[in-house]
Predict the structure of Pantothenate synthetase.
Amino acid sequence: METVHTILETRKIIKAWKKDGLTVGLVPTMGFLHEGHESLVKKAAAENDKVVVSIFVNPIQFGPNEDLEAYPRDLDKDKLVCEKANADLIFNPSPEEMYFDNAVTSVAVKELTEGLCGSKRPVHFQGVCTVVSKLFNIVTPDRAYFGEKDAQQLAVIKRMVQDLNFDIDIVGCPIVREEDGLAKSSRNTYLSRDERKAAVILNESLNLAKEALKSGEQYASKLTGIISKKISSEPLAKIDYIEIVDSLELKPVCKISSSILVAIAIYIGNTRLIDNFTWDIK
Ligand code: PAF
């Protein structure tokens, strides 16, 4: 496995692979890789001849008061994770390599980015869509792999690929959880011991909503009530949002009659964590 830092080197390697008729899977990441990322790389390795993992903490998807500087980084450990999961190439550019000083172009997906995390993080999805488009143009993968934990990101990228005619299959991969149910996230490292214990409340509250759906609950307001009550029972937790939306357009639903996404963002202390599940009406 090789690690390269420039677009030129990346393109050279990929050109040679394509000349040999090999397929390429891309796993875009911001590094500090955990078992969730590992599962994406493994899936990409099973479905493609070659796998590229991009590791780039993308400055333009962070708002002014967000955690760009604090975002955890460990390239040496990431290399081990990628190697173990059978990646072939790490693309690890600097911000200067990725962005021209005088760039005036960005990619914005409307509507789907207005609610959920988009309403709380106004610059986020434009930053994500711009960097993912650039990565798609640099790596030209056959398939790209994204985690379902960032459910809105996955829906937005699928829509962007459709709208802009990228010839790339977008593959969503299931959330990987800790033993106690907390969804794996690079941001879990921000949690103190007490906060880490408290953070199980996210998954526990979603499980209660799932139980209610299984028992035939049809009203979104009832589900948000169940989740909200559970979250409020944890003193270290503060609700950022609890949303029930249709899973394609991400528009709020009142009565559940199609596939829905139940998505939450919760502060545990100062750390904002997200989690979700989708529910299909059979
Ligand atoms: O999900 C992430 O880690 C990032 O948003 C992504 C897709 C790598 C773009 O920077």
